[in-house]
Amino acid sequence: MSKNTEAMTVRPSPSAAVVRRRSQGELVLRRFLRHRAAVISLVLFVAVVLLAFAGGALWRHDYADITSAVSEPPSFEHPFGTDNLGHDTFAQVLRGTQRSIEIALLIALLAGLVGTLWGAFSGYYRGVVDSVMMRFADLVLTLPLLAVAAVLTRGTSGSWWFVALVIASLQWAYVSRVVRGVVLSLREKEYVEAGRALGATDRWIIFRHLIPNALGPIIVNVTILVAAAILVETALSFLGLGVQPPDTSLGLLVSGATTAVSTRPWLFYFPGAFIVVIALTINFIGDGLRDAFDPTQRKVRP
Amino acid sequence: MLTYTFRRLLVALPVIVASTFVVFLLVTMSGDPLANLKGRNPPPSPQVIAVEEHRLHLDQPVLQRYWTWMAGVARGDFGPSVRTNLDIGHEIAARFGVTLRLIAVAVVLALLLAVVVGVLSAVKQYSGVDYGFTFAAFLFLSMPSFWFAVLLKQGGISLNQLVGDQVVYTIGERSVVVDGGAWAQLADTAGHMVLPTISLALISFGAWSRFQRASMLDVLNSDYVLFARAKGLSRRRVVVRHALRTALIPMTTVTALDFASLISGAVIIETVFQWRGLGDFLVTSVNQRDAYAVLAWLLVVAVAVIVFNLIADLLYALLDPRIRYE
Amino acid sequence: MTREIVLEVEDLTVSFPTEDGLVRAVRGVSYTLRRGEVLGIVGESGSGKSVTSMAVMGLLPGSAKVGGSVRFRGQELVGAPDKELRTIRGGRIAMVFQDPMTSLNPVYPVGDQIAEAVRAHNDVSAAAARERAIELLAIMQIPRPRERARDYPHEFSGGMRQRVVIATAMANDPDVIIADEPTTALDVTVQAQVLRALETARAATDAAMVLITHDLGVVAGTADRVLVMYAGRPVELGDVDSIYYEPRMPYTLGLIGSLPRLDDARRGERLVPITGSPPSLLDLPPGCPFGPRCPMRQEVCESAEPELLAASAPDHLAACHFSADLEGRRPEDVFALTSADHPGGAR
What we know:
The structure holds 3 protein chains of 3 kinds.
Chain A: H1 24-33, H2 36-58, H3 89-125, H4 127-142, H5 145-154, H6 160-186, H7 190-197, H8 202-238, H9 250-257, H10 265-293
Chain B: H1 2-29, H2 35-38, H3 46-55, H4 62-75, H5 88-123, H6 128-141, H7 145-163, H8 182-220, H9 223-230, H10 235-247, H11 249-257, H12 259-273, H13 278-287, H14 291-319, H15 321-324
Chain C: E1 5-18, E2 21-34, E3 38-42, H1 49-57, E4 65-72, E5 75-76, H2 82-88, E6 93-96, H3 100-103, H4 110-121, H5 126-139, H6 145-148, H7 158-170, E7 176-180, H8 188-205, E8 208-213, H9 216-222, E9 225-230, E10 233-239, H10 240-245, H11 250-257, H12 299-303, E11 309-313, E12 316-318, H13 331-334
Parallel strand pairs in C: 3-8, 3-9, 6-7, 7-8
Antiparallel strand pairs in C: 1-2, 1-4, 4-5, 9-10, 10-12, 11-12
C-alpha cells in the first residue's frame, strides 16, 4: 500500500465566495423586516403610543376638564368633538388609550411570566406533575374569560391594575400550554441529556436551555395575548365592569356613546377606531414575529 | 370507539366537580352579596340584613355552604336569589335555548365563511385574493365585538328607515306579540336573529379563517398531496378530496376550544341587542351581586364547555382514523 | 438488441429564486432511458438528483424555472400545460417517493388510494378499480390483500406501506417508474424487500426505471447504468461495471472508497472518506465544483469546469480534466486514509 505522494501535491484551497453567517437575532430581525404589514404596524403602533402618552400630556385639555363647549362636533379646538358634559373627546380618547396600553402591558408581563414558568415546569417534569398542572390550566381555559373577569371585578373598586390582574389570572393558561408544548419537544434533545449527564440541576436546564429556546413562541403568543387583552378590557369596561369613572377607558367611552351613534357620531367612532387600530397593529406585529421566528418558513419571491 | 367515549366521559366528571369548587370559591371571594342592600338609602335595619344573610346562607362557613349548594343542585335547586321571586333554575332553563340558537347559527355561519376564505387564501397564496382576505380576517379579529355590534345595530336601524319597513329587528330575540301561526313566529324569530348572529359570526370568523389557511397550507405542502399529484389527479380533486378533507380535521378542535369565547361574545351581543338570554342573565346577576345566580350560570356554562369539548374530541376521532385506535 | 428509447433528458436546468438569491439546483443533466433498463442516479443531498426527477414529472413548485428538454416518447414535457402532463403523470411515468410514512393519505383506506390512481387514467367502474387494487396488492405480496385493502395506512409497517406505494406506481402499466430514494427512510432489513418489490414491478410492467439514491450498495445490485451527480451536474455516466471497476472521476472514486466492503481484498482496511462538504448552490465558484475537496486538484480545476467527455469507452463519460490519470487507481491511492492524515488537517 503505497501512498503516491505526487498525486497529493497540495494547493491552498481557493477562497470561494463565503455565504456570511448571521447570528440568530439578526436572522429574526431580517425576516421581520421583510413582513411589510408588520413593519407598518409597528410604526403605527409606536406612533399611537407616543400620541397617547406624550400627546396626552402635552394636549391643552385634560381628560377630566369640563369645558363650556357641550356636544360639539369635531373642530380645531376639539379635534374629536365634545360630549354632553363638555369633556374634550380627544383628551378622553388619549387617556383611554393610555389606560388600555398600560393594562395590556401589565397583563402581558404577568400572564407571560406565570404562563412561562407554569408551562416550563409542567413540560419538563411530565408525569403526574404535568397532568395536574395542565388539568388546572385546562380548567382555567374552559371558563369564559369575559364572564369570569366580570364576576371577579365586581367585588372591587375597579382600579385599572386590578382589572389587569384579573384578566392576567385567566390568560396565563394560554401561554402555559404553548410553553409546555415547546418544552416537551425540546427536552428530548441531546443537549438536555448532555446537561443532565454533566450534573446540571433541573432549574439550570429549564432556565438556561429550555426557556431561552422557547422564547420565540413565547414572544409571539404574548403579543397576540396583548391584543386579546385589550379587547377583553374594553369589553369589560363597556359592560361597566372594568375601569370605572372618573377614570376612563376606550370601552367606557364607547358604551357612553351607544345611544348617540347617529346624533353625535364622533363620540362613538373615534374611540372604537382607536381600539381597532391598536388591536390590529399589535396583531400584525405578532404575525410578523411569528414569521420571523419560524425557521421553516420559506417565502419564495415570485 | 365506545371505550374511547367512555374513557373521555370518565375523565370529564372529576373536571366538572373540580370546576364547581373553583367556581364557588371564585364567587364567594368576589365581594359582599349584600353590598347593594347595605348601600341603600336609608340603610335597612340590622334585623333585615340578618334575615337576608340567613336566607342566602351567608352565616354558614364556606365549605358547608358549598356542600349545601351542591346538594341542592343535585336535586335541581340552584339556591336562593337576591331577587326574591326568581327561580334560578327555571330562568336559566328558559334562557338557555335563546343563547344556544344564537351561538349555533353563528358557529355555522362563521365556520362556512372561515373554510371558504381559508381555503381560497391557501390555494392562492400570496395573491391579491390572499392579501385581501388576510386583511379582512385580521380586521375582524381585532374588532371589539361590542363596537361592531352597535355599528350593525345602527346599520339595521338606518336600513329600516331607508326601506320604510321593519326589515331587520334590532331589539330583543322576538317580538312581544306575533300574529299568525307557527310560520309567522319562525319568520319573526329569524328576523330578529339576522343582525346578532352576523355580529357573533364575523368576530369568530377572523381567527378561524387564519387557522384554516395555515392548516390548509400545511396540508398542501405535505407528502401525500404531492403523491396525489404524482398519481395524475386533477387539481380540483387533489385540493378537495385530499387536502381539504385532512385540513378540516383541526377545525373541529378549534371550534370547540373557542366555545368559551363564543359565550363571552354572546354576553356582549345579548347586551347590545337586548336579548333575554344567558349572557344578559350573567350581566344582570353580576350587577345585582346575585351570588347564587352567578354560580348557577358558571356551573351550567362550565358543563356546556366540557360537553362541547367532548363532542369535538369524538368528532375528531371520527374524522381521523389514526386516533381511533389509541 | 437495443430497445426503444422512452425518455430523453437533454441539458435539463432547474433554478429556484429564494430570499438569498438564485439557487441553481440542476445545471445541465442529460441522459437517455430505454425500455426495461434501470438507471441509477447517485449523489449526495443537494446534488440535484431528486429535483431532476421532479422536473421530469412536472411536480416542481410554480416558482421553479426549468430549462432544457425532456422528451417522453417524442413528446416534449418541459413547458407543457398541466393538463397534458396529468395524463402522463401516474399513467405513463409513475413515481415512488422516499418516505412511505407520509406518502399515503392517512384518512383513506389503502385500496381506495390505489383504485383512485387507476380511475384517474382509465375509464373503469369503482368496483373494477378496486379489484385491480387488490390484484396489485397481491403482486406486491401483501398477505390477505382483499381484507387489507380496506385498512388505513397507519395499520401497515413501513416496508408494506412502501409496497403499497409501488403498487400504486405500477397500477397503470407505466413506461417509466421513478423511485426517489425508496429505501432511505427504511431499515436495512426492509430495504431488500422493497428493492425486490421494485424489481417485480419493473418486470411486470416492462418499464424503464430510474433509481435515485445516495447508497452505492443499492445501485450495484439493481442498476444497468449509473449516473453520478455532484452540485447539480452529472460528473460520470456509464454502465454499472465501468463505474464500479473503472471510475474516471475522483468523486466517484471517493464514493466507492467510502463504501464498507466485506469481500477479501478490502476487508479490514480503513474506509477512505472524502473530506469537506458539498458547495453551496447559491454561489458556485468558477471551475470544477468538486475542486475544493479533490486531492488531484490543479490550477486548471479552479478556472474551468470540466466537460462530460468519453473516458474508458464511448458510452462511459466523465467530467474531469484528469480522468485519464485515474486509470487503474484505487481510492486509497488518491484519497488520504483518514481526514487526519490529509495535510492541512481535517476540515
